[in-house]
Amino acid sequence: MIKTENLTKKYGEMFAIKSINLDLKQGDLFGFIGPNGAGKTTTMRIIATLLEPSWGEAYVCGHSIYNAPKEIRRLVGYMPDFFGVYDDMKVIEYLEFFAAAYRIKGVERRKKCDEMLETVDLDFKRDAFANTLSRGQTQRLGLARVLLHDPQVLLLDEPLSGLDPRARIEMRNLMRRLGTMGKTVIVSSHILPELADICNKIGIIDKGELKVSAAVTDVMNQVRDQTVLHVGVDNNIESAVAVLQQNDLVSTVEHGDGHLVVTLNNQTKEYSRLATDLINKGIGLNLFQEEEVSLESAFMTLTKGAGAKI
């Protein structure tokens, strides 16, 4: 659905993006992560045919950005970080205006607008003036607008920026729904935890260079040096420490907040016999859980902290 080959944009001697290679399939929800100025918006604008690259190629649904920009625009819905609404238009009028621009006519136009308002949970605001909406409601209206022509690809630039916690949750739920509709979505953000639970793939970009582009689980494994377990026992905590320290899988055992923090030796992935050893020694377990690597940790590791203000 989306493929880029050495996509590059240069301004004078400065590279906005350099040799970006992406390969996204139908239904992928791709989280584009990076600090402000890293090159996320530049990449998305090139894919949307709103900006020409210095060199490189990009394809959307098999169409080249050079040879078929009109076809690509019919297939793409692009939602910028900030967009204007018309002060004297009601929500339904705003959508009908853009539906007309997409040449959706007559009864079908009103039906389509009503469907989109329901999709983004904004039907209760259909007769409100667009400039009276909250930031979160405005973002949902923008999403309804880019969905009007049923695009196969969605490019959402910082849709979670500036939203309160409730609005972020609602927007994340909407993006999950888009994935179930079979649409290919690129969503950019510098709010790293927001993308971990909604995206199946992520790309980490820093200073115009794509550091990694892979499935979320693969990225986490890539930055994990050692597996860390949180182990809680019902009794005999010192006995549990002794049992764990004697196991050849274990590197260190430390006391955490009400549980033990067990760091395994490098490359150790299978550790179920640790639980078996403890149980066989009569030590009851109330917690046995692998510590997850956060997207913040992945970002800082892969960018080595350079310019990584999050």
Structure summary:
The chain has 310 residues and is α/β, with parallel strands linked by helices. The chain has helices spanning 40-47, 69-75, 91-101, 106-119, 135-147, 165-180, 193-196, 216-223, 237-245, 272-280, 295-303, and strands at 2-11, 14-24, 29-33, 55-60, 63-64, 76-79, 153-157, 184-189, 201-206, 209-215, 228-233, 250-255, 260-264, 285-290. It has 2 domains: 2-221, Rossmann fold (3-Layer(aba) Sandwich), CATH 3.40.50; 225-290, Alpha-Beta Plaits, CATH 3.30.70.
Q: Would you mind describing this structure in some detail?
A:
The chain is of the alpha/beta class and 310 residues long. It folds into two domains: 2-221, Rossmann fold (3-Layer(aba) Sandwich), CATH 3.40.50.300; 225-290, Alpha-Beta Plaits (2-Layer Sandwich), CATH 3.30.70. It is built from eleven helices and 14 strands. The protein has helices at 40-47, 69-75, 91-101, 106-119, 135-147, 165-180, 193-196, 216-223, 237-245, 272-280, 295-303, and strands at 2-11, 14-24, 29-33, 55-60, 63-64, 76-79, 153-157, 184-189, 201-206, 209-215, 228-233, 250-255, 260-264, 285-290. Strands 6-7-8-3-9-10 form a six-stranded mixed beta sheet, sandwiched between helices. A hairpin with a 2-residue loop joins strand 4 (55-60) and strand 5 (63-64).
Coarse structural class? alpha/beta
Assembly category: single chain
Judging by the overall fold, what is the CATH architecture of the largest domain? Answer: 3-Layer(aba) Sandwich
Task: Write down the secondary-structure element order.
Answer: EEEHEEHEHHHEHEHEEHEHEEHEH
Assign the CATH superfamily of the largest domain. Answer: P-loop containing nucleotide triphosphate hydrolases
Low-confidence stretches: 305-310
Main sheet characteristics: 6 strands, mixed
Number of domains: 2
Task: Determine the CATH topology of the largest domain.
Answer: Rossmann fold
